[in-house]
Specification:
Number of strands: 0
Shape: elongated
Helix content: over 70%
Radius of gyration: 16 Å
Order of helices and strands: HHH
Structural class: mainly alpha
Number of helices: 3
């Protein structure tokens, strides 16, 4: 259940970022987020305790970055709507 909630959150954030950010910024955001999740997964394959802690750290950083950029995209979209809706 938790996996599907995370997957749904990831997809919603991805859609919001796609429509709100410039294409280059969206690409960078996805690259950094996916790289953090991939590094977290690769580190989690190690059997040592410190590697499990580092893996969780990278997962938290990945989710934090994804949510931060999504929040920025929502704020940017709201500002753009305000600029286009103002009448002289």
């Amino acid at each position: 259940m938790l996996f599907f909630m995370g997957l749904l959150t990831f997809v919603v954030c991805l859609i919001i970022q796609y429509f709100s950010l410039h294409r280059v910024a969206f690409g960078r955001s996805m690259f950094i987020t996916c790289a953090m999740f991939f590094v977290g997964f690769m580190i989690s394959l190690s059997p040592y305790d410190i590697s499990q802690l580092l893996s969780k750290l990278f997962y938290v950083l990945g989710w934090g970055f994804l949510l931060l950029v999504t929040w920025y995209a929502v704020v940017r979209r709201q500002k753009m709507k305000k600029l286009t809706n103002t009448k002289p």
